[in-house]
Amino acid sequence: MVAPAWTPWALLLLAAPATLAGFRDRIQARNKELCKDRQLSQFFRKPTETNCAKVVKCVANRGDLKLIPTQCSPPLVFDIDSQICNYVEQVNNCDRQDKDPQLEEDAAQKIADELAKAEEEKKGACDLSTCELPSCFCSADGTQAPGKIELENIPQMINIAFNGAVNGENMAIYDRLFKNERVNPNGCMVKGTFFVSHKYTNYSAVQELHRQGHEVGVFSVTNTEDTAYWRDGGYEVWQEEMAGSRAIIERWANITDGSVIGVRAPYLRIGGNTQFRMMNDSYFPYDSSITAPLAKVPIWPYTLHHNIPHSCHTNTAALGGCPTDHFPLWEIPINELDRREDPTFDEDLTGCQLVSSCTNVQEKAHLHTLLMHNFRRHYKTNKAPLSLSFNPSWLVQNPDFVDVIADWMDEVLAAYKDVYFTTDFQLILWMMNPISSSNMAASPEFKEKCLVEGQPACQRPNVCPLRTSALPREVNRLHTCMECPLRYPWLGDPNGGLKN
Hints:
The protein is 31% helix and 16% strand.
């Protein structure tokens, strides 16, 4: 029998098991070397690859490592960092085999930070099981009203507030806005809130505002514009400025009923945890300095037992920003105003904090539009209080605007029987014990000093020209119904050298 003639192919088949095993081993060795220290399923370029469109990735399959190739379709190339195909002008890593490891670290850190932030927010989020009126109030997004009153039965409160010195010029404005004949639906005079700074203030005028039932709060002693002063001064500065301001107001405006309880930070430069720790220690139960960014639905007041339910515009490196710790204090936020002249047409614009900071208000018609649009925006959404704050010098410089505000107040009061112009403290009293608009007329909190008549405490206040070593080159005149002090009251010396 003649032996078969083996062809090269037949010989190859006989040797296949050993040959294929060796070949697979070599492939696996190469793949292990290429995939060493590389993340599975992440694309990379082979060391010898010069085509920026071609990449491979390592994939585990039944204990083996496989290289899966991918190629971008022209004119795209592969961005190794973003792991996607992109236009060549957008890719700057064709010379690199692997994704930048720093991007991996940054992504991991970002995820860790987001998880930590979410956990922290979860810890401080509104907890309705423990937060109950009258001492605590919160809602998940800050837009919910307290109590279980139907929207149509919630009174719409408007808080008119002035920041700065009270003197003869602006007292004439206040008399026009808060005249006796302008009354809320309960028959009581409309009220406002005055955050008073010390220098240039006439304390006999402050005393008269208090007699008429308006609220007096503190706006600091110095009212300095120096941001570093508020940032670096610390706890003692905030205490001397705010508690000292209250002591000066109480002494020289003869306010003895403990009603000076509200704080507004100068220029709304919030002092972070330092400010609110001082307030808690010094028995200031509420602040009205934090701005809520312009939104479709405005924010209701809340207590600081939990995280602030909105972003904080004033969290900056230069200032303390919003508090991050929790305090048993009330916050009456200033909802930013929509300043568009035609809200149905104009493009979106950033809001403004004070009426007097809405720079587009140049004419009387602009001001009326601003007031009415923002009133309706609050009234038709959730009836969150509308905060209208002013720098009084703006109205002194624009006297025609006073008539616009007064006419608008009359227009609103005539058309709506559930709108009340209240003080900030009256608002907090309502928050602590919410009642329907139909019950407002009988509420004692809104009846106090309902219609005030009679004469001011003194027709001719003492005008005391005084100095203080803290202001060595100045003579400041203190207007007061009280006895003149020895020195001009200032930081650390609220009594001006007189005994308590």
